[in-house]
Amino acid sequence: MTAFSAKPKALFDYPKYWAECFGPAPFLPMTRGEMEQLGWDSCDVILVTGDAYVDHPSFGMAVIGRVLESQGYRVGILSQPDWRDKEAFRELGKPNLYFGVTAGNMDSMINRYTADRRLRHDDAYTAGDEGGKRPDRAVTVYTQKCREAYSDVPVVAGGIEASLRRLAHYDYWSETVKRSVLMDSTADILLYGNAERAMVELTHRMANGENIRQITDLRGSAFLCREIPAGWSEIDSTSVDQPGRVEKQKNPYEGAHPTQCDDAKDIRIKADKAMAEAAPAAETVPLAIIPDTQAIKTDPGSTYIRMPSFDQVVADPVLYAHADRIFHRETNPGNARPLVQNQGRNDIWVNPPPIPLETEELDWVFEQPYKRVPHPSYGESKIPAYDMIRFSVNIMRGCFGGCTFCSITEHEGRIIQSRSEQSILDEVEKIRDMTPGFTGVISDLGGPTANMYRLNCKDKKIEETCRRPSCVYPSICVNLETDHKHTTQLYRKTRELEGVKKVVVASGLRYDLAVKDPEYVKELVTHHVGGYLKIAPEHSEDGPLTKMMKPGMGSYYEFKEMFERFSKEAGKKQYLIPYFISAHPGSTNEDMMSLSLWLKNNGFRVDQVQNFYPSPMASATTMYYTEKNPLKPLGRNNDEKIFSAKSKEQRTLHKAFLRYHDPENWPMLRKALRRMGRADLIGSGDAFLVPGESRREKEVKKRESKKPRPQSRSSRSAPRRRG
Fold this sequence. Notes:
about 725 residues, alpha/beta, Rossmann fold, Transcription Regulator spoIIAA, 3-stranded parallel sheet, 27 helices
């Protein structure tokens, strides 16, 4: 196993595979007949996905397929194959190199079940919006079927479902801690995050004859490991962040910014010194345990972190929360070290994250010959996810917000990867010229967060040494670029394109960042709001907000004032629509009551409510499961216990508080308010949260109380036996 490259080869610099002579396919083939039309006798790579095949850069399998095609490989797609029949996995024959398996653009469990674990009957990523076209835990099921179809063909797992299950994780649907998906699926290797870089290198190396089991030095990969490779030093995770007594432990999440303590040069000097001191230990013993003072700065190419084992995190919530802290501090490609976790007879080895794509590479990915429409086999059937994005443009990747309930950072990373202005403008013109039904309106110009385009750390060296999980919480980092001039300029140039009548920004907006640039807010509000602008304060109370790593309401009020002022100046009547989460860890009944009062006092009546959904490997999920706070030092004597609404009754109540205006929720809210000692909020008038019981309700209640109650079996007297 070799050291990880800090400057990898660019995606477009690899020599092409021999099958390049076939040229790009109109659509990547999904049947043997399509292969024959292309003159193919076999596929080099077959991608298996739980989504309908839409040849568009917003769909993961289309991106991976076109990127590999550009390298000269013949790529086929098995879209939503029948997982009950192994013959469906033989449709395209035996791939020459490997199967690539993904659940699709969404986790299969989140796609299939609501936050209350109710079965969905629709699927936005399926033709006709039809549910049930993919299995639960699709990565595991698809991989096993690939094995049944061709037992000797390697399988590569990827996509968001595999990405967020690369280590032991709490599984909301079974209410258990589950092993890495590598263990259950038996895939040969797992590629996490946006995997173009790892996929291209892996494919070329396999085409050159390397055995997939021997490819262990890919960034962004995870694999089973029976023996630790020679030359590596071990860091016990408890030396980096000890889950025992915490009085003397440094909290890596709350440390000062580099410019507030040491400058980047001093950090580098300390890092080099730590590595030099660690080197002799690595030479004298085969497996060196590096002490705490040296573990903060070590060479990622020769040291790994030993995390608590699967059995340990199952048995001990403190160790589970500790593992979460370690996982999140090892997400910066500039300083992350491999993570190793024992899971029975094997270790799971997770390599550091991939180096983010440069602008030229990201442009290249988006400029592949996508048809920008669904595969013709779907005919006139509608694919809702496609209809939603067909007139939108993704301008960047990643998110440095670090919200604990969101998995974008765990998947895409917190370093923003931005496309060039020209590449974005070119795509808008492709939409105008190629996409059926275009009326001149670009429905979105954004990404995971609309206003993070080209906002990066001001100093590359500081960026490479930072371990903060968020660049904007608890305050905006002094090293973060907050000037939105590039985004503002992009908006103006897009509006000027011929055939473009309006450009709407519909992606989520980080408003605490936006207020740092009033010119951007004015541009946005004046030209790019379609009547409503949705933002996400998520809560009104500081307690829950600190568990979400979201800003306080002060930023919301500051943005609201700007929004209303600029709307008035533009002569437009526009509305700000805030989003909130119910039942988030750390949110008590009292917090939800206060949020409900805030909503009523501000004249909001929420129609759609999102109950907290514990997705794998999110920090908020750790809070939900362990009732510990992984954002702070962990101690067994730590008195802080995070309340989480887990029962159906509690979660329903929290949702009801957000919909205080719905008469169906009034009986539940009255009962809860009386129990909380807040009956003063029940009555008629603006000062009350819910009205008192109506005459009809009182009559129904009175009739119900007079009905004889059914006698339970246990209370019925058994007949006496005589004689």
